[in-house]
Design brief:
The structure is a homotetramer. Chain A is mainly α. The first copy, chain A, has 5 helices and 2 strands. Chain A folds into 2 domains: 13-81, Orthogonal Bundle (Arc Repressor Mutant, subunit A); 86-129, no CATH class. Chain B binds a DNA duplex through residues 12-14, 38-40, 48-52, 54-55, 57-58, 68-74.
DNA sequence: GTGGTCTAGACCACC
DNA sequence: GTGGTCTAGACCACA
């Protein structure tokens, strides 16, 4: 499994799990209709608590990324099910403002800022095509 | 005072305070050498506990944004004191990657992504010049 | 527990705690991966407040000596995580200068000074090998 | 006057003053019998409070570095008045142990450690001969 | 007056 | 169970 957890991080494990799955979808390592490992399976693989994995899956379901079927477990949704809406874009802008503010404080110029933003996106985008 | 706190938010009060101060510096509402309200004063204004404000100030001191003088309270540092270093840029890129991943998942195109990033930066930058 | 606190000292309790832990690591009484007592436990053992211990642990985390896991408590980091960098050496030199100045004033000769410095280091180093 | 104060430092101003005077004596910029500026004078020069300067002078008197005469103000004592005694050496060793512990943790080798210690001493010693 | 430290006790998130 | 956050009130050092 491609998911790695940093137990030292101050980011909660279930958040790291969520991000890993989203990363997987972004890079098309996880395609719509694909099944994720069962809660038990993934928890065992990563040596974390079952509840932690379940929590991540539930959150992802609520966000529209996954569907949870009784028999097949967690399945990646169609892209259109979690397309960007206004609400999401507003939240994104707000979150980015905090980062932009610190960058501005630290003397990061506009070009540099956009460069970093672009790198973050392109790095994923490239892997996607592969 | 320009600082506002959302008590309902799940982001800690002291984090909101830190971001507010950084935002203030980014927009030059807070200039180097300028004194911030005393911990007691700000705590009273916002109806939060002294220690919560003190924690925010201490973190900002550790990050290099403020100096804490024994008798003058917290003072904004010179810009060069908290210039971007490699470590910061690495952390920034890493943080942005998580946002970019979700954006990519949700079908946000490269141009759109850069637009949002640019807006976040320019919005602050404009206020700065005023 | 090997940590002892002098309540009469004018150096803050949390600083004494930090030094004790660093001393423990230096002498390899605390090895990488080893768990420290929980904040509640240690606080009870030393009859100090939980928050005081927590402050010490947090500072040590920030310095890179410890990691704080959400469910295992504080764990000693790998040595390479807190290797000496330029910044540290500069701070060390500056701190030692103050001591050297007083020693020089008081007629301590160069050999004597180096002897004391060497003793301080070797004393720890010896215990380490045992 | 050669004394400089860093208002941003977390070292109390009176401690910085004490260290500056000791540094001056160590480097023989201040010789036995020499008069220091009056409390008023020095306080004005440095833009600090008179009480702060007075406190520094009093501490230095207690340590044996200065005598305070009614008419001549603060005067540097003869060297033998503040020669190293056992008590001082014990305190010095103890203080150095804390620094050595952190250095050891951070992978500083014995030679490196002695090098830094030697530098701190020699730097002052050189200025002294000039 | 300022911030720094310590204590005490509460609630919450995470696991 | 763990640590993280917040509140509350005390005392002290510094200036």
């Amino acid at each position: 499994m491609f998911i790695e957890i940093d137990m030292k991080s101050d980011v909660p494990i279930y958040e790291q799990l969520k991000q890993s799955v989203i990363l997987g979808i972004a890079q098309k390592q996880l395609a719509p209709g694909e099944e994720l490992p069962s809660v038990r399976q993934l928890a065992a693989d990563l040596s974390v608590n079952m509840h932690t994995v379940a929590k991540a899956y539930t959150h992802l379901k609520d966000k529209g990324f996954l569907s949870i079927h009784r028999n097949r477990g967690a399945v990646v949704n169609d892209y259109r099910d979690f397309a960007a809406d206004k609400e999401y874009l507003a939240a994104l802008t707000h979150a980015l403002r905090a980062f932009a503010a610190e960058a501005l404080c630290r003397g990061v110029k506009a070009g540099e800022w956009l460069g970093v933003c672009n790198d973050a996106y392109e790095e994923l985008s490239k892997k996607r095509r592969m």
